[in-house]
Amino acid sequence: MVSETTSKQKAEAVAARLGLEAVGRLSFVELCTKGCNPEYLAEYLTFLVPKAESVITPTGNRKPYSINLRALDSYETALGGVEKRDLERLPKQLLKYAEKIEEINLSRLVRYLEDDKYGNDIHAIPRLLVYYANEFIPLLLKQYESLGAQQKPQYTEYLNRMIDHVEQTTGVPHYTLISNVLNELGIEANEESLSSWRYRNKPIEGEEEAT
C-alpha cells in the first residue's frame, strides 16, 4: 500500500511538472491528499491551459511538431484551415462534379472498360459526392455552430471531467482548490464563478461523456 508520504511526494512531482508554484501547488497537492489521482488531474489540466498543445517527436530525422489539443475550440482550427464560406460553396461544386462523372460513367468507353476491378468503385463516386454535398456538409455546418471560443466544447468537456474526478474521489467539488490551480495556469476562476459555470455546463445525467 502506498504511504501518505509517497503519495504526497508524487503529487509534488506532478505539480512541479505542470509548473505550479505557491498557492496553485499547495492546492494541487491538497486535492491529491484528499484522494485525487495526480496523473488524472495533470491530464485534464493539460487540455485546459490557454495554449493546449502537445509536441510530437517523429522517428527518424523528421522534425518535432506541435498539435492543438483543443482544435474544436477555435473556428480557425476546427476545419483544418478551411473557411466556413468555402465549405458553404462546396456542395454546389460537388453536385456538378457528380453530374459530370455520371455522364462519363454512362459513356460507351466506360461500359467497354467495366470489369470487376473497378466497375463498382467508379459508379459509387457520384453517389458519394451527392451524399457529401446534401447530407454530410450540412451536418458539418450545423456542428460548426457549436464550436469556437464562446462554446469551447473541448474545454467544457475536460473541466467537467476534472470536477467530476474531484467530486467522485473526495465527495466534494472543492471549487476553491480547483480555482487556485486554474488561476496559476492562466485560467481566471474563483469559487463562485466555477460553481456557476458547473451549474450551467454539468452534463445531464445519462449523457455522460466517454472516458
Overall residue-averaged pLDDT value: 80
Topology pattern, helix = H, strand = E: HHHEEHHHHHHHH
Structurally, the number of domains stands at: 2
Terminal-residue CA separation: 26 Å
Tally of helical segments: 11
Uncertain residue segments: none
* Most strands sheet: 2 strands, antiparallel
For the secondary structure, the number of strands is 2
Class based on secondary structure composition and strand pairing:
mainly alpha
Helical proportion, percent range: 55-70%
Description:
This protein has 211 residues and is mostly helical. It folds into two domains: 100 residues, no CATH class; 67 residues. The protein has eleven helices and two strands; from the N terminus they run αααββαααααααα. A two-stranded antiparallel ribbon has the order 1-2. A hairpin with an 8-residue loop joins strand 1 and strand 2. Helix 1 packs parallel to helix 3, helix 5 packs antiparallel against helix 7 and helix 10 crosses helix 11. The model has no long low-confidence stretch (mean pLDDT 80).
